[in-house]
Amino acid sequence: MTLNEAKQQLATEVSLLMTHADTEALSWTASKSDLMEILYCAYETETLRSDNGSPMPFLDIVRRCCRLLHVSVPSNPYHLARRARLRKGMRNMSYLDRYLFLVENNREVGLWKNIS
User: Fold this and answer.
1) CA-CA distance, 91 to 88, in Å (whole number)?
2) What is the domain count for the chain?
């Protein structure tokens, strides 16, 4: 799987997440930086669409997903997403790189969990 295919798959998972109701007890299981990186990857694919068919703005994606996952919206999600992507070579790889590793090694990837 290529990085572009991994981005598309992440975008599909974010799209699935956005079909859940606000009343469902979903919870984010990783860091807020990981979440912003994932949401930015989904935003970049331009596959998430608003009601009028135009690509969904990043902040709309962030607000919707944070509400669904019971996570507070960061004051600057763009900065958090950018910082998460640039952490290569540090203690932790970018989420996209870790996601690609998990998928390629047939490991379960759980982006969120139901806490009910």
Assistant:
1) 8
2) 1
